Amino acid sequence: MASALNVIRTYSHKGYLKNSKAEELSHMCISPSKKSFWFSSHPPLEDRINVIDRTFIKRFDARERKVEREEKRSTEKTEKQQVTRNMYSADIAKMQLTGTQHLHDVIGTISAANLEYAMSLHEQFPAEYKRALQGLEQAKTMLLYLLLSDTQTLRDEQLTWLQQQLPKSQDYLHSLTMLSQGIQQRLALPLVELLIPLLKTLEQDAKKTLLEQALILAKWDGQLSLFEICLYSLLKKNLQPELTSNSSYSIKKLDAVAYEINLVVSCFVYTAVGSDTEKANLHSSIMNIFSLKAQPLIAKENIQPNKLYVTLKKLNGLSPMLKRSLMDVCGDIVFRDNIVQSSEYQSLKLMSLLLSCPMPAMPPAK
């Protein structure tokens, strides 16, 4: 009854009678029949509502103010996104549509599309995965969980081993395994990037143990992909203490890092589609760009995590122009077949992080 009377109160001004005898009919109306008249036949609607519930009008007005605040926040958010679009003009799609000659333009820049896509990625994290950002034990568990194999038999073996390694996280690990499906690959790296600052607060012994556990899981199937190597290198870079501090941009000639350039190029060549001969030709053409023709394609079995970690750490000292060239040719290898696999893009992004040339989150091309 109070709600009905309140609706009438809210819209009473729309129920006035446009007639000279409107006041004579007021006794038949719940609300006033005219804007003002001398003799009221009923008490004011506010008084009638207060008789039923003295708090009703106050609660209703509070709800109305809350709705208005939410609408205001939504409007401000939309306006802010529009301002962001106007502030940043970099078009990330041009790299995906026209090739990698624009890759160096993407690194270190950001656009409204990047920001909106990054926010959408965070919103897509399942609730159980977001729990990993709330404590160190959950963070360690989630990082190792992301390294589990997609092959069910290997995954079962790894889970059994992981349960022994993480006795304090049995409940959380069980809740992760109970999920109907694992996290999408494109969400894995953004989650790792959020976990790293938390993991850097671990004690040094705990960091060392975590790195050892991560390497064991990555090598469980007897081989390491470029993505796994780069991910391990990124973890090692952030969790291992720096023993020496080299000056930035100390390397200004490619001849000084010929082997290191070759190692990185060889890694990306092995991710390309094609026969062994096609990969060898691709490697040769890429090395010609650097005028390093004498460097042969490094055998896959000779590409070890520690070697790549030391290599990328050394290449971090390249001058900005040389880093730009290196990222461009690696991007050229990835985009050579016009199909960018998720693992290829993630490997490229990981390498950019290791070289201190961060790439923004890029929406997939339609």
What characteristics describe this protein?
single chain; 366 residues; mainly alpha; 60% helix; elongated
Q: How large is the radius of gyration?
A: 31 Å
How far the N terminus sits from the C terminus, by CA atoms, comes to 54 Å
- Overall pLDDT metric: 76
Number of strands: 0
As an assembly, this protein is single chain
The biggest sheet amounts to: none
Low-confidence stretches: 83-101
Q: Give the H and E element order.
A: HHHHHHHHHHHHHHHHHH
Report the β-strand fraction as a percent range: under 5%
Helix content: 55-70%
SSE-based structural type? mainly alpha
Helix count, DSSP H or I runs of 4 or more residues:
18
Shape: elongated
How would you describe this structure to a colleague?
- The chain is an all-alpha fold and 366 residues long.
- 60% of the residues lie in helices and 0% in strands.
- The chain contains 18 helices and no strands.
- It has helices at residues 2-10, 45-52, 56-87, 93-98, 103-106, 112-123, 127-130, 136-145, 152-165, 170-177, 185-199, 204-218, 226-239, 258-271, 276-289, 305-315, 320-334, 342-354.
- Helix 17 (320-334) runs antiparallel to helix 18 (342-354).
- The longest helix is centred in the N-terminal third of the chain and has 32 residues, at 56-87.
- It is elongated and about 105 Å long.
- The chain starts with a helix and ends in a 12-residue tail after the last helix.
- Mean pLDDT is 76; it is low at 83-101.
